[in-house]
Amino acid sequence: MRRFLVAATVTLLAVLQVAMAGVDRQEAIDMMKKCQKETGSPEDVEELFDSQKIPESREGKCMMACVARAKGLMRGDEIDIKTGTEFFERTYADDPEQLEKGAAIIGKCSTVDVSGMDGCDKAAAYAKCGQENGFRI
């Protein structure tokens, strides 16, 4: 179970590291807007991205999970461990400092209890933990 939590944390932190991973701002916002339409999220996605706030509404949390699914990092309400791990390793392959920082945060966030949560709440819980430990969403 701990291995699953670590892998799940890796995946969610990776997908929510849009700004740090060098993904184009507009590309990230466009994806969030697409997911906003699918989920009915009332949040302003540009404000969320720029302010690094984690959505509080049910629909906003589901929007985050939608983005993770669109990136291939979640299937349904579950993490795609293999794809997520590969994404994380590619993202920080040339940045050992960030890779080390990520490993430390994964250790902390792997203890987040997500039992009984659906994919929307899982996405938000991991994002919150990552953010509290220095990662940008």
TrEMBL record:
Instruction: Report the SUPFAM superfamilies cross-referenced here.
Output: Insect pheromone/odorant-binding proteins
Q: In the UniProt record, does the keyword Coiled coil occur?
A: no
List, alphabetically, the Gene3D superfamilies matched.
Answer: Pheromone/general odorant binding protein domain
CDD domains the UniProt entry points to: PBP_GOBP
Keyword S-adenosyl-L-methionine in annotation? no
SMART domains registered for this protein in UniProt: PhBP
Arranged from A to Z, the UniProt key words for this protein are: Signal
Q: Output the Pfam families linked to this UniProt entry.
A: PBP_GOBP (PF01395)
Q: Check the UniProt entry and state the signal peptide residues, or none.
A: 1-21
Q: Which InterPro entries match?
A: PBP/GOBP, PBP_GOBP_sf
Output the Gene Ontology terms for molecular function.
odorant binding
Name of the featured protein: Odorant-binding protein 41
